[in-house]
Amino acid sequence: MTAKDFEEQAMPHADSLYNTALRLTRNPSDSEDLVQEVFYKAFRSINQFEAGTNMRAWLFKILVNTHISQYRKTAKDPSVAGYDDIEEFSLYGQVHSRSSSLTDSPESILDRFLDEDIRKAIDKLPDQFRDVVMLVDIEGFSYKEASDILDVPVGTIMSRLFRSRKLLQKYLWEYAVEYGYVKP
Questions:
Q1: Residue 155 CB-density burial (10 A; 0-12 exposed, 13-18 middle, 19+ buried)
Q2: Does the structural domain 3-74 have CATH classification 1.10.1740.10?
């Protein structure tokens, strides 16, 4: 693959990579550095890329692996928290049963959430859960592709995604109460 071919195939994914990097690092400057490092590593290893395969998935795998490597270098004591105790929670059910007005439907209440509130809720997720939400729900990768990118089994992706969504429901419930859309 020539440098021009690489540029044509890889550069269309720059914005998507940056958005995911921003979610991972939570810092615009660090995100720019991370994406730059991804393109550097990808170009340096272009001979390992198999023509006809998914360039986007390959770049995202490099992104996630680079982020994890950088995180491990800076973290003194990385801890892996257990999230088996995430209780069953249905945001839709809670909104339906506690809406502040009889004329408000759960759908209309949920539609009032601002993009910023959703971003804040995603940012509150633990890293391993946020990574899965970013790849599957936001970037649109399949479970298998996310599994390959994160180098974990598909079942782990499914489990983390389920737990992530439950946590997001809880966080969004807190915003609904805070904004007075529902009564606590």
A1: exposed
A2: yes
Token readout for 24 is: 């991972």
Distances (CA, A) of 98 to 56, 93, 103, 180: 43, 9, 12, 11
Residue 47 amino acid letter = N
Q: Give me the residue spans of the domains in the chain.
A: 3-74, 91-178
The closest of 61, 56, 62, 8 to 36, measured between CA atoms, is 62
Q: Give pTM, 2 decimals.
A: 0.52
pLDDT of the residue at 59:
92
Task: Please list, in sequence order, all residues whose beta carbon lies within 8 angstroms of the beta carbon of residue 45, skipping any fewer than 6 positions away.
Answer: none
What Cα–Cα distance (Å) separates residue 112 from each residue in 96, 105, 137? Answer: 14, 11, 20
In angstroms, the CA 175 to CA 76 distance is 33
Residue 43 pLDDT greater than 80, yes or no? yes
Span between the terminal Cα atoms of the chain, in Å:
59
What number is the average pLDDT over the span 55-76? Answer: 80
- Report whether 13 contacts 55 (CB < 8 A): yes
Query: Are 148 and 105 spatial neighbours (Cβ–Cβ below 8 Å)?
Result: no
84 CB-near residues (< 8 Å, 6+ apart):
none
